[in-house]
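Continued from yesterday's entry.
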Amino acid sequence: MKKLACRLFSIVFAGAACAAHGQGKPAAYPTKPVRIVVGIAPGGGLDTMTRLGAQKLSERWGQSVIVDNRPGGGTVVAMELVVKAPPDGYTLLGASDTLMMNGVLKRATYDVRTAFIPIVQSTTQPYVLVVTPSLPVKSVKELIAYAKSKPGALSYGSQGLGTTGHIGWERFNFMAGVDILHVPYKGAAPAVIDVLSGQIQMTFSNTVTSGAHLKSGKLRGLAITGSRRGRVFPDMPTVSEAGVPGFELTNSYGYYAPAGTPRAITRAISEIVGQGMNTPETIRMLAADGSEPVPPSTPEEFKVKFERDYWELERIVKAANIKFN
């Protein structure tokens, strides 16, 4: 995936025009570059997966698809930009589950369920609880014991206030009975950099961002946050197994459009990304880093799932008494 991230780091993807015209798109769309706005800094999992989907679109359309990084406000800056854009299919949002969190926590000034059209989910993945090797713990149980002995002395990094990582860590604090302080960043990659340098002690990181550092020993992985062990580090236990029963945190990446975007456009995007992410080659590439493509579905099916997950997130936030200040 490190090679994948490097390959996709170029902002503009130009496709092969000869096979593109007349396939997988409504008439007269797109006739100019399409922009996908991402609310984090380059290099994180959301950025990488958005670029991979953008490549699939560009290859099919023979049209440039631009990934525009606009970090800030826990992805609210990017959301605001897209929600105000013309609903013509030329400005889309690449987002993680943080989009729902910004709605549940009332960080957005509008109802995200009606302001955006869920188009397609691309991939889903758990995180790894990573710590700096200088921290004298080698398991989740040891981390909890150490944190309890030094309340408020340890800190974790997240992708920003109200993001998946932030809510996940606050839930970890609640369920484990510890007090680990929050340090927000403008993306996953900057947080990992500060764990590497020892500025903070830990973060939840996807293997796209931290896999190479885990394999080299520059980071120490304590557990996987999913419901089952991962393919990349099969000997690493889940957080639930390792000391916090019932804890689970996963993230998914997808595309959204401003409300009012024509159905023909959202369906075309959904079809191309869904099929492209589920090719055998892409599945193998994603599996090597612990990610899985989401099976193809329609925007209507994604909307049903989005609303169901939104309700579940509301329930979790209320149960854990998580508040955004």
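--- second protein ---
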Amino acid sequence: MAITAAQVKELRERTGLGMMECKTALLESSGDMEAAIDALRKKAGARVEKKAGRIAAEGAIGIYLNPERLLAAMVEVNSETDFVAKGEDFIAFAQALAAGVAKQNPADIDVLARMPLHPGKPMTVTQARTDLVAKFGENIHVRRFVRYAAGKAHIGSYLHGRKIGVLVEIQGGDAGLARDIAMHIAASRPAYISKAEVPPQVIAREKEIFVAQAKENGKPENIVEKRVAGQIDKFFNKVTLLGQEYVKDPKITIEKLLKSAGASVTRFCRYEVGEGIEKGPSDFAAEVMAQVKGG
């Protein structure tokens, strides 16, 4: 199977490893990017971990939380350049969109596109987005959204700059605790609330990688088993909210913090602009100049 230079470049950017290492891994995985990353993790360990979550796309997160902290929404809106994403009009669009999602509860992106940007006013989300595209001359789109209606619980939110946003639903505790937990989630990137939520296939995949790493280092079989068990425990503490050390006080875990407040987390959502998206090789500035010259 032919491996393209673009595939090698993407894998190199995501792992931080050498070009030949990346090309070999892609050839051995028949071009499967995730399988290639797994193979490199087995061989290179932490060197791969540092850049595996690299992001590329630009944009902004919009968050709405009502005064009672019972209704909230969060959206991600993408643009081609950071220059556009940090503009007042773009950020206002993202914020208005979050409020619209909370109040109008669209079923999906298609329904969202047709709803009024501001309830009771004629302009739709699509029309508002089209106006921004015309104004800035680059592609702008709404990527995703989430809406929480808390019922008996309450919601905390946190927006770090405009690129990382968090909603968290909490039973018990107060507004300060909810915001602190949201801030922690923004900084520490948990994937699950507890060990019970981690899928068996995810645990099996990590165990396979840890075993391969230990054997690569020439460890005897009896040592491998103990080492892998310890690494799995560290993995749980890394990916679960309850197992993580609290960013404001590393002496305690989030689990202990919540217990001391008589509180529990029922769900959370963390968005980071562009996560999981890789930019294509196009150069927007060059494209604009080409259009001007062709003009």
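Strands lie at 58-65, 71-79, 140-149, 154-160, 164-171, 245-246, 249-253, 264-272. The chain is about 50% helix and 20% strand. Will compare against the first tomorrow.
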